[in-house]
Amino acid sequence: MPTLELHGFDERAGDQLVSQMRQVLQDLAYCEDIVFDRTYPGQVIGWDGSWRPFVRVCSRRQEKIDEIRTLLNPLCDVETLMIGFFPQSQESVANSEQA
Question: In the 8-state DSSP scheme, what is residue 27?
Answer without folding.
Answer: T
